[in-house]
Structure formats: C-alpha cells, structure tokens
C-alpha cells in the first residue's frame, strides 16, 4: 500500500510542513524568547552608565528555558522516543517474518525480508547518529538550567554544538554507503551534472569546428 498512501503530493506536503515547523521552532528566540530583557534588567540594577554590550556566547544569548522545556522536551525527546519505538516494532516484525519464512511477492522470502532488515538497520543507524550528535548539547543545557552552580567547560559546549551541525553531513554519507538505491541516485545526479557540462562543451566545440 506504500505507493497508494505515500503519493508525491503527500510527500511534498509532509516535507514542506517539516521545514515550516523547523523554521518556526529554530527562529523562536528571534521572536523574543531570549535573554535580552534579562540582561537589560541586570544592567539597570547595576546602575551602569556604560554602553549595553552583549557577550556573544551561546548560553548568554539563548534562553535555557527555551532550549530545555520547548526545544528538548517538546521537539527532540518525544520524537526520538517515538522513532525508537517504531524501529523496535519494525525489527520485531521483520524478525517474525524471517522466522516464519512466509510467502510474499518475491520468489525468495528470506532474501526479501533480509533486504528489508538491511534497510531498517541503515535507518536505525541514522537515528542513532542523530541521538549521538544532539543529546550531548541538550544534556549540557539541562545541567545549566537545573544546576546553575555547576560549571561546564565552554569547550564542551562548543564541541556539542559542532556535533549538532555535523549531524547534517553524516546522513548523506550513511545513505550512500548503506542503501543501494540512494547510492545509485547520488551517482546518477553526479554523473548527470558532469555529463551536462561535458555535453555543453562538446556541443560548443562541434559548432566552432563547423564554422
């Protein structure tokens, strides 16, 4: 039923919704949920007549309430746990099918479900890398919010932020190495791009020779 349920239109709508939600969640601090008002109140209490200067550090500018309660507890942890449960159910169903060796549209059910298991493992690896990349930063944010007296080295925060950005570069690599269809598509796009360049240059050269 996959082709009837996941139509190109529905896939496009789902992707668009994901991007819109991501923009709204990511830009929330720019809409006002930040530490600007807190820093201004602190300066007023100190009765300082010096110019208002913001120290450009992640924990100074970004509100930890936003990062922990809104970002982590709403938009990261619940989807992560939900995806974990879904993958556990997928692996359980595939394992049952492999044990039963039920008939399918394929001539070799063992090979068919073995292929499904390989794809599921690849997607589970993507989920694992996501958790590995994002959880360190959110754990540090929880420590900062719930234990204000605890001092965490800034280098750990920088490394955690670097991991979150690096996660976006990991997924295409995992897809290309683990899933044949993705690898074929990447190679096709790569070759098509350079073939177009080659064809253009060849066409120009041919035209010049004819002239």
TrEMBL record:
Subcellular location: Cell membrane
Transcription regulation in keyword set: no
Main location: membrane
GO cellular component, one term: synapse
Organism superkingdom: Eukaryota
GO molecular function, one term: G protein-coupled adenosine receptor activity
Keywords: Cell membrane, Disulfide bond, G-protein coupled receptor, Glycoprotein, Lipoprotein, Membrane, Palmitate, Receptor, Transducer, Transmembrane, Transmembrane helix
Domain G-protein coupled receptors family 1 profile: 1-175
Membrane-spanning parts: 12-33, 72-94, 123-146, 158-177
Topology within the bilayer: Multi-pass membrane protein
InterPro entries: Adeno_A1_rcpt, Adenosn_rcpt, GPCR_Rhodpsn, GPCR_Rhodpsn_7TM
Function: Receptor for adenosine. The activity of this receptor is mediated by G proteins which inhibit adenylyl cyclase.
Family in the record: Belongs to the G-protein coupled receptor 1 family.
Protein name: Adenosine receptor A1
Organism this protein belongs to: Turnix velox (Little buttonquail)
């Amino acid at each position: 039923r996959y082709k009837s349920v996941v139509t190109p239109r529905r896939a496009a709508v789902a992707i668009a919704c994901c991007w819109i939600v991501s923009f709204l969640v990511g830009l929330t601090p720019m809409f006002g949920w930040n530490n600007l008002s807190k820093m201004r109140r602190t300066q007023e209490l100190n009765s300082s007549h010096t110019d208002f200067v913001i120290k450009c550090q992640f924990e100074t500018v970004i509100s930890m309430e936003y990062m922990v309660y809104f970002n982590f507890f709403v938009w990261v942890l619940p989807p992560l746990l939900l995806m974990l449960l879904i993958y556990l159910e997928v692996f359980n169903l595939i394992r049952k099918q492999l044990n039963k060796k039920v008939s399918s549209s394929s001539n070799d059910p063992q090979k068919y479900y073995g292929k499904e298991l390989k794809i599921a493992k690849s997607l589970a690896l993507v989920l694992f890398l996501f958790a590995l990349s994002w959880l360190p930063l959110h754990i540090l944010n929880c420590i900062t919010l719930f234990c204000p007296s605890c001092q965490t080295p800034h280098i750990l925060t920088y490394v955690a932020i670097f991991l979150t950005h690096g996660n976006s570069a990991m997924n295409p690599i995992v897809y290309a190495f683990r899933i044949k269809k993705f690898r074929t598509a990447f190679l096709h796009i790569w070759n098509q791009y350079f073939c177009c360049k080659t064809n253009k240059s060849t066409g120009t050269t041919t035209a010049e020779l004819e002239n």
